[in-house]
Design a protein that fits this description.
- With 159 residues, the protein is mainly β.
- It has a single domain, classed as Roll (Pnp Oxidase, Chain A).
- A seven-stranded antiparallel sheet has the order 3-2-6-9-10-5-4. A three-stranded antiparallel sheet has the order 1-11-12, with no helix packed on it. Strands 7-8 form a two-stranded antiparallel sheet.
- It is globular and about 40 Å long.
- GO terms for molecular function: FMN binding; riboflavin reductase (NADPH) activity.
- This is NADH-FMN oxidoreductase RutF, flavin reductase (DIM6/NTAB) family.
- It comes from Geodermatophilus aquaeductus.
């Protein structure tokens, strides 16, 4: 790793990010992976972007037009984030979920965004998935965040 790459990695570890599990169905089977690199892209039309490692099993199952879900995890779901981050593991084993608009929706998530793949864009060792939002809902739960290589949640401060 170059000095610049190492310094960049450390800077990014200091940025608090929301944690979600991106999900899809392929051949009737559910697939999911934990990500912290996602964001709102556009409000008109509603779009998101999600960054997936090129080696991601989930990425291999996404194509333009494919449905996928963005399960924004709640603060109490750190174990779920770890489970879906493991390569090759069946993150869905023993987890409550349902199909919602063509993608697995995890029970208890703080937020849900149902999408369709608009475009896949090369981004170095990752691929950026641009998604058209087809539905969204929010639960009354604090979000799970990742900062300094640890899970936590947002704590408001007085300005």
């Amino acid at each position: 790793m170059t000095a610049v790459a190492g310094a960049f990695r450390e800077v990014m570890a200091g940025v608090a990010t929301p944690v979600s599990v991106v999900t899809t169905l392929a051949g009737g089977a559910p697939y999911g992976t934990t990500v912290s690199a996602f964001a709102s892209l556009s409000m008109a039309p509603p779009m998101v972007l999600v960054s997936l490692d090129r080696g991601s099993g989930l990425l291999a199952r996404l194509a333009e037009g494919a449905p996928f879900g963005l399960n924004v995890l709640a603060a109490a779901q750190a174990e779920l984030a770890t489970r879906f981050a493991r390569r090759g593991a069946d993150g869905f084993a023993g987890v409550a979920w349902e199909v919602d608009l063509g993608a697995p929706r995890l029970e208890g998530s703080a937020g849900w965004v149902a999408c369709r793949v608009a475009r896949l864009v090369d981004g170095g060792d990752h691929v950026v998935v641009l998604g058209d939002v087809v539905a969204a809902s929010l639960q009354d739960a604090a979000p799970l965040t990742y900062h300094a290589r640890r899970f936590g949640t947002h704590v408001p401060v007085d300005a």
